[in-house]
Design a protein that fits this description.
With 270 residues, the protein is α/β, with parallel strands linked by helices. Helices cover 45% and strands 19% of the residues.
């Protein structure tokens, strides 16, 4: 019973941590494409090629369901993968929809027409590729009308977090929030559209102000995954071993991941 979790780097470990707490009896196979990250500065075709290769490796490891815990891959590759590439007996899901459902207060699987919602002004913080894809706005439009979204590309934040330079990461977050607030002075809600950003959630909250609701992905995605598996238990794959795979240097990535999660993580070569 294995579920795959994919990210271009370490950010998806925040989703993995929440998922393992919510689903302690499920094995998870994590794939980090560290040899090719960051994805946030790549074009859509390149992201699609790399993402399909990584997901295929997770299918080969016995995962019938894969979560793209990479917002950039979810934004730039997921729809195309679902339309032309994913086999009929497999599923690949992204991380945007659970956040949008929480933001718009719609239940999982609610396919009714879009309607007005309480939140009218939303700040989106994401990588440059996610912002340019406008995937968040597209998915939101399926569920809500009359919502103004102002997106801020947060260059440098992911690299600073993965390098362990949290002082630089905090400074960059404050700078990006200032830039966003010049365009949207009073956002009602903020979406952290990258799985690295939960590590900076407190910094985002302080910079935005206590009255802004901050939506972060790990708990929302893990709750949606639990619900999905309750309704589709057949999507638990045949894999039985939890493992961490990387296209990078396993020793280096293991050290970075251990610092990232503050517990021992051991990657092996993909």
């Amino acid at each position: 019973m294995a579920v795959g979790i994919f990210d271009s780097g370490l950010g998806g470990l925040t989703v993995l941590d929440a998922a393992t707490q919510a689903l302690p009896d499920v094995s998870f196979v994590y794939f980090g494409d560290h040899a090719h990250n960051p994805y946030g500065v790549r074009d859509a075709d390149d992201i699609y090629r790399l993402t399909t290769a990584a997901v295929q490796r997770l299918f080969d490891a016995g995962c019938d369901l894969v979560i793209l815990a990479c917002n950039t891959a979810s934004a730039a590759a997921l729809r195309r993968m679902q339309e032309i590439w994913v086999p009929r007996d497999k599923r690949v899901l992204g991380v945007f929809v659970p956040m949008i459902e929480a933001l718009t207060e719609r239940q999982w699987g609610d396919n009714s027409p879009p309607r007005e919602v309480a939140v009218k002004h939303v700040a989106l913080f994401a990588t440059p590729a996610t912002v340019s894809s406008r995937a968040f706005q597209r998915e939101l439009a399926f569920r809500a009308i009359g919502v103004d979204v102002e997106a801020q590309a947060c260059g440098g934040v992911v690299d600073a977090i993965e390098d362990g330079d949290l002082i630089l990461a905090e400074a960059l977050v404050r700078s990006h929030v200032d830039a966003l607030k010049r365009k949207m002075p009073e956002p009602q809600a903020a979406v952290l559209g990258c799985t690295h950003y939960p590590l900076m959630e407190d910094v985002f909250q302080v910079a935005l102000g206590k009255d802004v609701a901050v939506y972060s992905q790990p708990k929302l995605v893990s709750a949606s995954l639990s619900d999905y598996l309750n309704r589709h238990p057949n999507m638990l794959g045949s894999g039985k071993e939890s493992m961490f795979l990387t296209t990078g240097d396993p020793r280096k990535v293991s050290d970075q991941a251990t610092r990232f999660l503050r517990r021992k993580i051991e990657f092996r070569a993909a």
